[in-house]
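Researcher: Structure prediction, please.
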Amino acid sequence: MPLREASGSALTAERILRDKLIFEKIISRLPKRVRGFCRKHEDKLTYIFFGGLTTLVSILTQYAADYLGANTLAATTVSWVCAVTFAFFVNKIFVFKNASDDLHDFFRQAGVFYCARLTTYFSELGFMILTVDILLLNMHVMKITAQVFILIGNYLLSKYVIFKKKE
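Model: Predicted structure follows.
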């Protein structure tokens, strides 16, 4: 059973058109030079927008788990799972507009997405240990620096590996 949308590929085309119209309505209010930039980099801009929402999900779930009495490891783990799950769906639907052919394809994408995010998570962890604990650099500056590289890495993995357009 295809997972394209509830009613198949026609609804997928309809959804893409609707999303495009909403995007056009928003950018039509911007100066002409900015509109061209936005159209050219739509996928990157939506990725950054939804990345901000993912960060918000991460922070809110971290605080909620902490408020409910979870220790730091548990709160961070809950936060990571919620943020990555949210990111998977918004990237799949809104950023890369990717439809799954069937349940197997959907779960394959989800598995690759989680593995890729684990890879960048451990890369960030290694970067933070090296720069903060070993080199004694400023944690806040290094966290921001790490986030820039993680954002780029996650985008590239999502675009070219996980949600790659089928030929």
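Model: The chain has six helices and no strands.
Researcher: Thanks, that helps.
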